[in-house]
Design brief:
Blueprint (H helix, E strand, L loop, with lengths): L11 H9 L11 E2 L11 H9 L14 H15 L10 E4 L2 H12 L12 E6 L4 H8 L3 E8 L5 E2 L6 H6 E7 L11 H14 L2 E5 L16 H7 L7 E6 H4 L8 E5 L1 H14 L5 H11 L3 H22 L12 E5 L7 H12 L1 E2 L1 E2 L16 E5 L4 H19 L1
Parallel strand pairs: 1-11, 3-4, 3-6, 6-7, 7-8
Antiparallel strand pairs: 2-9, 4-5, 8-9, 10-13, 12-13
This protein binds pyridoxal-5'-phosphate.
């Protein structure tokens, strides 16, 4: 068997199951889960209808490149969303089966492990905390993940200036996540300027995971995207690709529809890899995706629901925890250290006493540079409907107050 598989870490939800093993939640409370970051709002009727209307597509193999109408719809969306004058739908856009598989497959395409000795494998730079796929993708590509801790004092920005030159020299791929999971932080134009300068100097590819880009709280200020930053800095897309997805934007995580856009030469090799990888998006879902990317009404409605939820729940929790409205995405990243409990103790006791599930931050980060930057935090995914989120928040408030009495 592939020995690299042994390097993979258990997924955060496996760690959570282990943490909760043997705990019987107190009777009288229905379960409320803020654990898994899976969108729960209903899928819009126009997308469901488009799926049904496209069922004859089951009779054909989908093209890895995606259909021309889908690439055109994505290109139009990207141009409109990021203010680009043009993007070539034929060479700079590629539909994928959700951003997760693409984040993974991209590392298999980009990493050249022959360039290094076994003692010094290529490096994939990851934010810390981070989405665990980055680490697994790096390890299975024969690379080594190098974690750059995010700093709560600088809105969770990563300190790239602390990365030594010998690490940059081995870096072939850098993942960023903006809006970030779990912190919700959005990279600023200055952050991008720094990253582009580093990529231009050291030659690594930037993979910008932007799957939460359409969940934000101020209609006038959508999160800055990587391609948009490149435009604003007059840079072009060299060694830059962004990944996006309909899962959160349109409440269709089961459709597995996303795209990668940016540097045409990276996408050319990615397409070749994908021809063998065999993860082409079903024709049925390609057609429904065209409808989804062409409609913004359902996306605005979706945002309005999240806004209402966050405006209600955040102040409730801010009374008892160090937490504030994030830049974007659907998580609250709450500092629980003021309660006197560790993040794992907090999660376990909250589950036992109130049947509410939150994810300990330390499960979403690695110990690096003397610390685990997720420690002391919990991730609260506000994905359920408002009434359930409010009830969960009410229980968390009661729980925190009970700790003080
Ligand atoms: C940061 C991040 N990236 C990517 C994904 C994958 O999303 P999808 O494959 O549905 O596009 C997720 C899913 O939760 C995520 O949290």
């Amino acid at each position: 068997m592939n020995p690299l598989l042994k390097k993979l870490q258990p997924y955060p939800f496996e760690k959570l199951r282990a943490l909760f093993k043997g705990i019987e939640p107190r009777a009288g409370f229905t379960p409320i889960s803020f654990g898994i970051g899976e969108p729960k709002h209903p899928t819009p009727a126009l997308i469901r209808d488009a799926v049904i209307d496209s069922l004859d597509g089951l009779a054909s193999y989908p093209a890895t490149l995606g259909s021309e109408p889908l690439r055109a719809a994505i290109a139009a969306w990207v141009m409109q969303r990021y203010g680009l004058e043009s993007i070539d739908a034929a060479t700079q856009v590629l539909p994928v089966s959700g951003s997760r598989e693409a984040l993974f497959a991209l590392a298999q395409t980009v990493i050249d492990s022959r360039t290094a000795s076994a003692a010094e494998p290529p490096i994939v730079l990851c934010p810390n905390p981070f989405y665990q796929i980055y680490e697994g993708a790096a390890l299975l590509a024969g690379a080594e993940p190098y974690f750059v801790n995010s700093d709560p004092a600088r809105n969770f920005a990563c300190d790239y200036s602390a990365v030594p030159d010998h690490i940059w020299a081995r870096t072939q791929l850098l993942y960023v996540c903006s809006p970030g999971n779990p912190t919700g932080a959005v990279l600023t134009l200055d952050n991008w300027r720094e990253l582009f300068a580093l990529s231009d100097k050291h030659g690594f590819v930037i993979a910008s995971d932007e799957c939460y880009s359409e969940i934000y709280f101020d209609e006038g200020h959508p999160p800055l995207g990587g391609l948009e930053a490149a435009r604003l800095l007059d840079r072009g897309f060299d060694r830059l690709v962004m990944l996006s997805s309909l899962s959160k934007r349109s409440n269709v995580p089961g459709m597995r529809s996303g795209f990668v856009a940016g540097d045409a030469s990276v996408l050319k090799d990615f397409l070749l890899y994908r021809t063998y990888h065999g993860a082409a998006l079903s024709t049925v879902f390609q057609r429904a995706s065209v409808v989804a990317w062409q409609d913004e009404t359902h996306v605005r409605d979706n945002r309005a629901k999240y806004l209402k939820k966050f405006q209600t729940v955040t102040p409730m929790l801010a009374d008892v925890l160090d937490v504030r409205l994030p830049d974007a995405a659907f998580y609250l990243w709450a500092n629980v250290s003021g309660t006197g409990l560790t993040d794992t103790e907090f999660a376990a006791r909250l589950y036992a006493d109130y049947n509410v599930t939150v994810l300990p931050g330390s499960f979403l980060a690695r110990f690096a540079h003397g610390t685990n930057p997720g420690e002391g935090f919990v991730r609260i995914a506000l994905v359920a409907e408002t009434a359930e989120c409010v009830e969960g928040a009410r229980r968390i408030v009661e729980f925190c107050r009970s700790l003080k009495s």
